[in-house]
Amino acid sequence: MTxxxxxxxxxxxxxxxxxxxxxxxxxxxxxVAPGETLGLVGESGCGKSTIARAVVGLQAxxxxxxxxxxxxxxxxxxxTLHRARARMQMVFQDPATSLNPRMxxxxxxxxxxxxxxLVRGGALREQVGMLLAEVGLPPEHAxxxxxxxxxGQRQRIVIARALALRPALLVCDEPVSALDVSxxxxxxxxxxxxxxxxxxxxxxxxxxxxxxxxxCDRIAVMYLGRLVELAPRDALFAAPRHPYTRALLxxxxxxxxxxxxxxxxxxxxxxxxxxxxxPPGCRFHTRCPMARPVCxxxxxxxxQAGESGVACHFADEVSPSSHYQSEASAP
Amino acid sequence: xxxxxxxxxxxxxxxLAFGIAALLAPWIVPHDPLRQSLLLRLKxxxxxxxxxxxxxxxxxxxxRDLLSRILYGARASFAVAILSVAVSLAVGVSLGLAAxxxxxxxxxxxxxxxxxxxxxxxxxxxxxxxxVIGPGFLDLVLVLGLTRxxxxxxxAYASTLxxxxxxxxxxxxxxxxxxxxxxxxHVLPNIAGPLLVVATSEFGLMIxxxxxxxxxxxxxxxxxxxxxxxxxxxxxxxxxxxxxxxFPGIGLFALVxxxxxxxxxLRDQLDPRxxxx
Amino acid sequence: MTRSFTGPALEVEDLxxxxxxxxxxxxxxxxxxPGEVLALVGESGCGKSLTAQAAxxxxxxxxxxxxxxxLLDGDDLYAMRERDVRRLRGRRxxxxxxxxxxxxxxLSTVGAQVAEATGLRGRAARDAVLAMLTEVGISDPxxxxxxYPFELSGGMAQRVMIATALIARPAILIADEPTTALDVxxxxxxxxxxxxxxxERGTAILLITxxxxxxxxxxxxxxxxxxxxxxxxxxxxxxxxAPAHPYTALLLAALPRLTDVPKxxxxxxxxxxxxxxxxxxxCRFADRCPLVGERCRAERPPLADRGDGQLSACWHAxxxxxxxx
Lengths: 331, 277, 325
Known about the structure:
Oligomer: heterotrimer
Low-confidence stretches of chain B: none
Largest interface: A-C, 53 and 49 residues
CATH topology of chain B: MetI-like fold
Radius of gyration of chain C: 21 Å
Helix content of chain B: over 70%
Low-confidence stretches of chain C: none
CATH class of chain B: Mainly Alpha
Strand order of the largest sheet of chain B: 1-2
CATH architecture of chain B: Orthogonal Bundle
Strand content of chain B: under 5%
């Protein structure tokens, strides 16, 4: 079975003004199977947004390979990229700037079809109507302009546009972060529904672990340009194997005062280092509560065990956080 | 799409009135603007001649009807202003758009060109152009068109940079849109706002420049009427025939004030809209 | 600094703020006791930020205070002259904001900015600043004092803002979305810092946020705002365990939790937050409420006592428990 997306040793380095390259992404390998949703989580400087842009070809890669539905994106010529882009689409964070304010919503949603000369005229209008209905908006609203819609509705329009070409891969970069809580729920419900009906692969980038847990099947955790852990959702939340994953999970404030205040505190020390100056050895060692001398010298290798993988010298010693047992896994 | 406030509509109406008057000049002038009459020299406003009729605003030093000359002069002003703004827009926006879209060398060269052009005084260029092609309508349009484009380039450049970084441009790029479509359907409509504001104020300025250059003898040449040349000729008669300077002056003032106010209102109209989310 | 006043550090009484005639904050009232953390929570457009700005008398020009009093340690802020209020800011009442980098003067060193809040000079100022920077968890404070804001990370800058805000030992600190722009591990540190400082110094904290998780983490009491009014208020453990207003219940049910069944359907609140021009004089949540009845559209429900300090503005507060949780 061909993966919808395969990253092999992907690296993206930006040349910085003082000569030192910013190693935003530094050797990441992962894959997303068709129909699966992979969550990519991490904090500032981890490189997740850079990966999202590199996957769709908006960012040039310095090294490595990105294969989308069988086509290599890195170093691809314009024609190949153009064809590949029909198989993948992106949903951005800010609905306010994701739509051309001078274009009707119908024109925006239909643009992918129009530009590739796939449909025209009446058939195009019909398709656009269907797409809008699929995301829960009345087809008659196609003649309206973006400013006439709310933030949540605009995000739906953006999703409708992304679905127009029936892509094999959907890349979502913080799709709900800019929305209010009550609106977020609507969009998340929509995404889960679409997952089931479209069977497309999704790369879901977010900093919000609760959201990621809600829509993803597997989760990849990044820190300063590297993958530190990758595991199926339930395994990750029930028993994180990397100290950073554990700290991240415990840091997410839960809307439940009893549970929240009973949590053991693993407050990490210090600030997140800049991607321009990653610490030597294991990049996390400067903040790790379990750091030992070897961590400052040697980078931990990736150890795969079944479906899970982790990069830590002492992964076996990370105490499982039984804090997040959920009774059932996703249907 | 959006309703314009009353003030803008009113100003547009006034501008349109001027424009229509200018356009219909050949048909609505009471007299032939070029017809001279030694007997009717320097007659005050309201003079009625038994054979030729009413001279509503008086006559000039060659006995020509001032009102008719002013109406024809309006034609010249509008024509020069519209054409020169068109030339400047075409040149300036293209350069600015290219600079903002392709950046790197294109932007560097474009901006250095802009700096160079802005450091050359317009008067100097006007004199040079006159020396080369000779004075007149064409010379005016060329001089004005080719000296004012940098202002559009700067605005177009800044706006293009801003718009080009927006996610919706990237989204269209990902949908498969090529550079042509991106620039024409996505960038241009979104930079039109600020450019319109610049064009409006430039229009007013071009009216003034035309008057100024014609006043100096570098623009529209006599006997063709132009507000500038009328003013110039009227200089010597300020005490004896005040109407020769006052009426064209009022016309000039009214038109430019109207245009500038419109420009300000447009800017306000567009700004909070783009700032509002 | 010993307090002679025994009432709340900050009390807001019947505050009404309007923009262009339309009231955007419509009769808000609450009190924050010394050492207590009161969270003012709501979604965008509910008026919580404006309330915070009113509390420190820094309302933007377009906003008018039509009615209401703000009492700081018993003193009416709006009855004073502007220059007296200015003396109080940073000393008896402080505020920290969402974007620390935007709130710090880029041309002034860290030391200078923190010292400004003390009113001291020279050696005394420097010592006070060093002590405060250490207390907010900034390592190597002697070096940081000479740094400029652009040299600081987000978390560090926020700590500097907190230092500036608390160095003069104000009675109350207003924190407007202090951790929204920070990474989650840094957020955890900052929230713990705020909680600790409040407890140690007896500073009251008015915490403005949209994040229920943050509320659950450090707030003692919470006031839930909707469309310019308080829908519900009470102790955090009570409001979260047994909300007495449909909006609170739905808001809590709409959040994806780490204990949910993954991919399960999240509760959705039908409709949208109304715009201030369309605020109804009766219950403003009526159009979106699953419990809506005749009375809701006709009469504005008052904040009624549900017992144990919990107040709710709903005609059907007894039935909130039946809403999907």
